[in-house]
Specification:
Elements: H1 2-34, E1 45-51, H2 58-66, E2 73-79, H3 86-96, E3 100-104, H4 111-121, E4 126-129, E5 135-136, H5 140-147, E6 155-162, H6 170-186, E7 201-204, H7 205-208, H8 221-231, E8 237-246, H9 252-275, H10 280-292, H11 294-305, H12 307-329, H13 338-375
Parallel strand pairs: 1-2, 1-4, 2-3, 6-8
Antiparallel strand pairs: 4-7, 5-8, 6-7
Helix pairs in contact: 1-6, 1-12, 6-12, 6-13, 9-10, 9-13, 11-12, 12-13
Length: about 400
Amino acid sequence: MSLSIAMFFLVVSAGIFTVLLGKYINHMRTTRLHVNMEKDFKPFVSVVIPTWNEADVIENTIKNVEGSFYRDFEIVVVDDRSEDGTYEILRKLERKYNNLTVLQKKGRKGKPQSINEAMEVAKGEIILFLDADSRISPEYISTHVACFSHPCINMIFTDFEPYNYKPENLAHRVQELFFSFAKDVIYSNIFVKMIFMGNGVFFRREVLDKVVPIDPTTLVDDFTIASKLSEMKIDEIFSIYPWVNIQYANTLHDLWKQHMRWYYGGFREIVKLMKAGNLKYLFFYLFTVGLFTAPIWFTILWFFFGNIWLFIGLYLIIYAYSLFAFSQVLNVERRLSILSSFLLPAFVMIFELSVLIPAMLKSLFVERYFEVMDKIGRGMRKRDDWYKVKRDKG
């Protein structure tokens, strides 16, 4: 019994240590990024904003970006044949701002092709990708662009915070905990690399030109770009300030659909890379599948081989729980009540599993079904895998 208690506290302590280590790495990496940067380094910047049915937010987003302290920039917006008046709003703004270029999509629907078409006209030495709901501080562009005065800096992806956060909204609290975990454990690169969000990302143009065009069929443009950067041995720098402000999904249904696109799209790309002969992704896929289905495998091992496997499985779950819990507890901006801090991590872990497992199965079996149907000439089907979260007006 005393050994079990000691192991419990050891595992929880390991979780706390991991979170603190992640915060330290992110802080030190950002500090080094901003040290000795040349504030007089002012290359031309292209801000690329893909849009589709963004009438509720796009005008305020453009006005917000135009308020930046940095002045040597253009905004390139590619509208994906919106049906809610977004394009008309953009054309009106184009007449107001000389540095705004509005394009109407020519090719396949989806954000990846919007990026491809934007890059055909973008003139900047530095490219910044923003989503249509983004809000940035006046110093956001100038601070990060100055970091590119270091010749070794080729890309920076920035922290993000919600501007529509409501503590009484369960979906918002779930996202706050999930992203606190992601920033401390994932973006710090303690365990994995090659993961970032495609909003609030700066690239040196000469590097991005080696990445585009992006596969227009992908559901995860950020994963596709990241995998190519990884092959090129490009360091991906996470900067915790200044951050970009975003909107959180308002309902669990919206959130589930959004995460399904992320996970399914990511696993689908991994399967493609594996088929192309990149076997390191096979290991990554099997590791991910094994990690997130560990409770199932350890239950089976316990049933056949004894209690030791049950204890190992339980301790792994406790470790994962402590990562989620303490990343939120140590979030000084939006701490939860004691009860929520205890219950919410378990809910988030179950919620994410409810998305991950179907996404894995879908990437393996549904894609294979579509491939077979295409080969036998029965490929007509509706593919509605891209899901855009509903925006708050503002």
